[in-house]
Amino acid sequence: MQKVEHIGIAVKNLDTAVPLFEKLLNSLCYKTELVENEKVNTAFFKQGETKIELLESTDPDGVIARFIEKKGEGLHHIAFAVANIEEEMERLKKEGFVLLNEKPKPGADNKLVCFLHPKHTNGVLIELCMDRK
Ligand code: ZN
After folding, report:
1. 3-state DSSP call for residue 38?
2. Separation of 20 CA from ligand 1 center, angstroms?
3. 107 and which of 44, 80, 96, 111 could share a cystine (Cβ 3.0–4.6 Å)?
4. pLDDT at residue 37, rounded to an integer
5. Ligand 1 centre from 78 Cα, in Å?
6. Ligand 1 center to residue 122 CA distance, Å?
7. pTM reported for the whole predicted model
8. Residue 108's pLDDT is what?
9. How far away, in angstroms, is 125 Cα from ligand 1 center?
10. Rounded to whole angstroms, how far apart are CA atoms 57 and 75?
């Protein structure tokens, strides 16, 4: 794995969370994007090499809505950049990690992504992401 590409934070409402993070980070949100297949609206900030991704559910039954219901708002996942997502998925599978999707799927910010089951990563949801060519 390469660097931490971004940190995902679950929020109830982007309309209030975006201005709050703009104040906190002293930088402007540079992009918002709807990821329809994940039922989330996302907003991105760039802090040096690393991005912050705010996630708002677009559906009361979406994964982010259910996460907030269970745990409240807050840290949702850590995403690592990988050079070859298929190779990395294969390697992690061999190491006994459980992948939440068998094939890389399209994510926000023009990425291919795969999530690892947090049960096998000390409760931390890990995302692998690779730039789509
Ligand atoms: Zn993410």
Report:
1. helix
2. 19
3. 111
4. 85
5. 7
6. 18
7. 0.93
8. 87
9. 10
10. 14
Q: What pLDDT, in 10s, does the model give residues 82-109? A: 999 999 999 999 999 999 999 999 988 8
Cβ atoms of 48 and 110 within 8 Å: the answer is: no
Task: Report which of 37, 83, 79, 82 is spatially closest to residue 62, judged by C-alpha positions.
Answer: 37
Most distant CA pair in the chain: distance in Å?
43
Q: How far is the CA of 60 from the centre of ligand 1 (A)?
A: 19
Q: Which residue has the tokens 């900030």?
A: 45
Rounded to an integer, what distance in angstroms lies between the CA atom of residue 21 and that of residue 52?
A: 9
What residue type is assigned to position 36 of the chain? E
pLDDT at 8 over 90: yes
Distance 113 CA to ligand 1 centre (A): 8
Q: How far apart are the first and last CA of the chain?
A: 18
Distance 93 CA to ligand 1 centre (A): 20
Residue type, 68: I
CA of 7 to the centre of ligand 1 (A): 7
Look at the block and give the residue holding tokens 């399209």.
Answer: 106
Going from the Cα of 95 to the center of ligand 1, the distance in angstroms, rounded, reads 22
